[in-house]
């Protein structure tokens, strides 16, 4: 029944509104959904999508994504086996979805919980993307919350402690093999608005996927949000990805927008840094100082 028909038929219009009201009664935010909730739909943003992993015994393949609702409350959603590929094209970072009747359970004991519960998305779960042109029920606005560590405090972070950062990528090395087991990796140099720089090591899959994208975009100085990375002593103090890290390239956070504006205002300085480091790349991938930062030994 189309809208014109409903206008001519008040009973039909009343029926349509009753269906819509019933549908909205099942629409719940994350904090209202428990294992006892039987019929529900939640409108959420996908904000984190790490790569699929295998259990320690190698028998189970799983993927843990994180979604966030209109209140920016978060919950982890787990996919297993064939369900990972089945929903791979649906679950795109920073898209909005209506997720209905996923299994709700207490997080497994060996995981760091995002919420008091977690969801399991399987073949019985309904996942529907909310399109940008949906006027009646539009997508959620971009997320705003980030819990990142300032560069000034990176040296204070304990080794193997996970944290998040936001930074500009100013240099991207080529693929190489390093470490005790000759693992594949790539060094990138990241910078904050104080022109402070660190090396971030991208290992294995991060080198192939994210590293390749950053290498192609490095001349534009992309902004990354690196989640669940850690501090290491590789080549001195540096940062490193872990198996469960996430690298977001130019994600739609307002903090990223402000950093992109800083890049636009400081492009000449960034280009000078990049040119100086390119000329030194054969020797070392270490950030070269600006001329006015160099102090003669006699003045020290």
Automatic annotation (TrEMBL):
Gene3D superfamilies: Nucleic acid-binding proteins. It comes from the Eukaryota. Keywords: DNA-binding. The keyword DNA-binding applies. The keyword DNA-binding applies. One of its GO terms (molecular function) is DNA binding. This is Replication protein A 70 kDa DNA-binding subunit B isoform X2. It comes from Nicotiana tabacum.
């Amino acid at each position: 029944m189309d809208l014109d028909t409903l206008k001519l038929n008040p009973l039909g219009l009343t029926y349509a509104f009753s269906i819509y009201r019933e549908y909205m009664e099942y629409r719940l935010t994350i904090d209202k959904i428990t294992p006892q909730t039987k019929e529900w739909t939640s409108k959420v943003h996908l904000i984190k999508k790490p790569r699929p992993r295998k259990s320690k015994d190698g028998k189970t393949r799983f993927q843990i994504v994180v979604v966030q609702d209109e209140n920016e409350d978060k919950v982890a959603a787990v996919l297993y086996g064939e369900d990972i590929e089945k929903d791979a094209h649906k679950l795109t970072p920073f898209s909005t979805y209506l997720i209905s009747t996923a299994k709700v359970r207490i997080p497994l004991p060996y995981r760091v919980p995002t919420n008091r519960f977690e969801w399991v998305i399987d073949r019985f779960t309904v996942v529907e993307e909310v399109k940008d042109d949906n006027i009646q029920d539009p997508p959620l606005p971009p997320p705003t919350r980030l819990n990142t560590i300032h560069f000034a405090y990176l040296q204070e972070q304990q080794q193997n402690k996970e944290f998040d950062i936001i930074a500009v990528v100013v240099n991207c090395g080529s693929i190489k093999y390093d470490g005790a087991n000759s693992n594949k990796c790539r060094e990138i140099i990241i910078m904050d608005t104080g022109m402070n720089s660190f090396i971030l090591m991208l290992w294995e899959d991060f080198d192939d996927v994210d590293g390749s994208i950053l290498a192609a975009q490095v001349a534009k100085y992309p902004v990354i949000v690196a989640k669940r990375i850690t501090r290491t002593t590789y080549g001195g103090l540096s940062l490193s990805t872990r198996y469960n890290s996430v690298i977001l390239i130019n994600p739609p956070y307002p903090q990223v927008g402000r950093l992109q504006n800083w890049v636009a205002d400081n492009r000449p300085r960034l280009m000078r840094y990049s040119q100086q480091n390119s000329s030194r790349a054969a020797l070392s991938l270490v950030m070269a100082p600006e001329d006015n930062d160099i102090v003669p030994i006699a003045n020290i």
